[in-house]
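User: Hi! I have a protein structure encoded as tokens and I'd like to know what sequence might fold into it. I'm fairly new to this, so please keep things simple.
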């Protein structure tokens, strides 16, 4: 009897060991975080003044025809951290003396409650928007912020008077509950908690890497007053500036403080126009001030092949030509210079940094020509994106179908196209570039890329693009994508997937990038399948609630007909993983069979059939795919004569 008890005890003791011995995940998970703006949904800082817009100007006296912004910001005199030295201020040519104001023009993610406004100096304020004043005393005001029923709204701070002998400065606007701790605790606890599962944070948007130092991408063109000067260290974002909502982003000192407090590895992006001293000082700051146990991923700028960004235009305009320094090879000296300077600064401590060369995942030739022109051994990883999205032909079909498109339609297209396109492209980069150089392939951005073509236009099937973001099918897309990416990681090795992005609203026109929609999102009310899939991957679990929609569609796929509506012919496509007995039948709305398109055994693969509706009247029809005696799926189509 004692022997049996001992055996049972031993088995119970070993069970956790068996669980722990399971194969580890091959991919570490990090995330990009959103840039700082007055409509932020991440709300990272407890002092919301750090998201305030730069100052605007307005006539101190309201006149007929006065606009909300007189546009004289550049004519105001400021101190070294951005506070106006005198208000009202006379500006030559203005209708009246000028006041300044700033604000937040979309506060649906801001917590409700009592905010405390603090400042130094002698001046008068006016606050307007979704708030009421609770108390006011010299250099301190308390206001109660309550979002409107639409969940949007604004808060605006106006400086009506600032004494030039003791001008208003050091304005702080503290979120509820943080007045006593904001000086030592600058980060929002709710934001920190949501980021906890991620190993690495990429500061590309925090640092305003795209178009860094420019108000517009086209500022680099000579006819627009472009400038070839590579900037010095004094041009960086400073910690004491009144807002971080500028074209230079969050100061490096704040990034370092975040990493040291949270224990996160960090991914930093060197501004495209940084001079050698800037890069050296930047590298030295991170070397000296960051916890030496943390890893730094360093990358030159971001997507310097992407023509919508100023950094691409800057290099091409000023440093490329068609004879001796062709594109994309003309990008290489800038990447190389950054890698070399960081190598010099971190000499003897190279285990602290990973030197990353970002590449264009969808254009192998560009990626190959950049990487293979770098000095061997001067970088540690090659990094494409790991996005999946809709191919252009699917977008075109869906635009003709309009509101009848469903999340299932989008899912079906993505599953087929990413195996054919995205995964194939990544495998080429791994095998022909990363493996040939014996370095890892990691992903600087990744996730769903469900956007219309062209980008920025509202598609006719917008609702389906919005709906799939909350659909369990999205959970399946993410979970299966991670499984696919694991096939690109050799046994015993690990890769890094940097999700893009953390928190952002849904939009069909510009892409629903966030894995969460708001910092305080109640996922029991508003599902977050992308976030859940990442959490479950990290925890090696599967959420039943997110998996409940999985059916035979994972094996047999019936696609939406194209075109739809149609007259008189349309094409129906379906996919078989194995040889099967197939029946494809068209019915009218009363359930009467009007055409039997397939009635035979077919081999595995993608099949198409044309449905000719000549002789039928306009209306809605259904087609049903039956596999081996089981109805797999039905879809509707519209005949419009």
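Assistant: Happy to help. Inverse folding works backwards from shape to sequence: for each of the 641 positions I chose a residue that suits the local structure. Here it is:
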């Amino acid at each position: 009897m004692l022997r049996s008890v001992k055996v049972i005890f031993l088995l119970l003791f070993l069970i956790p060991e068996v669980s722990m011995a399971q194969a580890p995940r091959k991919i570490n998970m990090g995330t990009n975080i959103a840039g700082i703006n007055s409509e932020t949904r991440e709300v990272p800082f407890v002092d919301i003044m750090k998201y305030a817009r730069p100052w605007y100007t307005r006539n101190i006296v309201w006149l007929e025809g006065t606009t909300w912004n007189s546009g004289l910001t550049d004519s105001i005199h400021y101190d070294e951290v951005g506070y106006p030295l005198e208000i009202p201020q006379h500006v030559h040519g203005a209708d009246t003396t000028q006041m300044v104001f700033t604000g937040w023009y979309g506060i649906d993610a801001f917590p409700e409650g009592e905010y405390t406004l603090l400042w130094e100096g002698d001046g008068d304020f006016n606050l307007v928007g979704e708030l009421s004043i609770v108390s006011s005393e010299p250099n301190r005001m308390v206001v109660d912020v309550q979002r409107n029923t639409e969940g949007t709204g604004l808060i605006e701070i106006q400086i009506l008077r600032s004494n030039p002998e003791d001008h208003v400065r050091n304005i702080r606007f503290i979120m509820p509950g943080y007045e006593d701790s904001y000086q030592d605790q600058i980060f929002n606890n709710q934001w920190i908690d949501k980021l906890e599962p991620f190993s690495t944070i990429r500061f590309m948007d925090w640092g305003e890497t795209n178009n860094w130092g420019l108000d517009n991408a086209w500022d680099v063109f000579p006819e627009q007053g472009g400038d070839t000067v590579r900037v010095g260290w004094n041009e960086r974002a400073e910690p004491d500036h009144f807002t971080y909502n500028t074209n230079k982003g969050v100061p490096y000192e704040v990034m370092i403080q975040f990493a040291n407090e949270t224990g996160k590895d960090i991914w930093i992006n060197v501004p495209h126009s940084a001079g050698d001293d800037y890069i050296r000082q930047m590298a030295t700051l991170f070397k000296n001030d960051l916890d030496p146990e943390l890893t730094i991923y360093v990358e030159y700028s971001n997507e310097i092949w992407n023509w919508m960004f100023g950094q691409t235009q800057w290099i091409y305009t000023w440093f490329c030509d068609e004879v001796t320094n062709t594109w994309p090879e003309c990008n290489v000296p800038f990447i190389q210079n950054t890698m070399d300077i960081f190598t010099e600064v971190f000499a003897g401590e190279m285990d602290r940094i990973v030197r990353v060369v970002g590449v264009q995942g969808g254009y192998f030739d560009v990626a190959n020509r950049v990487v293979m022109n770098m000095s061997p051994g001067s970088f540690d990883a090659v990094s494409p994106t790991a996005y999946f999205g809709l191919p252009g032909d699917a977008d075109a079909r869906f635009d003709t179908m309009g509101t009848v498109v469903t999340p299932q339609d989008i899912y079906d297209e993505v599953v087929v196209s990413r195996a054919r396109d995205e995964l194939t492209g990544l495998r080429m980069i791994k095998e022909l570039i990363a493996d040939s150089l014996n370095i890892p392939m990691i992903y600087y951005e990744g996730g769903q890329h469900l956007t219309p073509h062209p980008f920025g236009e509202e598609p006719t099937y917008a609702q389906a693009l919005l709906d799939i973001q909350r659909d369990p099918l999205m959970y399946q897309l993410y979970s299966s994508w991670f499984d696919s990416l694991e096939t690109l990681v050799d046994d015993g090795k690990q890769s890094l997937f940097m999700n893009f992005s953390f928190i952002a609203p849904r939009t069909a026109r510009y892409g629903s990038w966030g894995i969460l929609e708001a910092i305080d999102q109640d996922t029991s009310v508003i599902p977050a399948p992308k976030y859940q899939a990442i959490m479950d991957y990290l925890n090696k679990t599967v959420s039943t609630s997110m998996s409940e929609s999985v059916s035979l569609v994972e094996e047999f796929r019936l696609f939406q007909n194209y075109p739809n509506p149609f007259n008189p012919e349309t094409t129906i496509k379906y996919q078989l993983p194995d040889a099967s007995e197939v029946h494809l039948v068209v019915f009218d709305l009363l359930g009467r069979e009007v055409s039997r398109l397939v009635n035979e055994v077919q081999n595995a693969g993608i099949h198409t059939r044309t449905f000719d509706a000549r002789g039928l009247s306009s209306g809605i029809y259904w087609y049903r795919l039956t596999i081996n005696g089981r109805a797999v799926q039905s879809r509707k189509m519209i005949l419009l004569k």
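A useful reference point when you look it over: The radius of gyration is 29 Å. Feel free to ask if any position seems puzzling.
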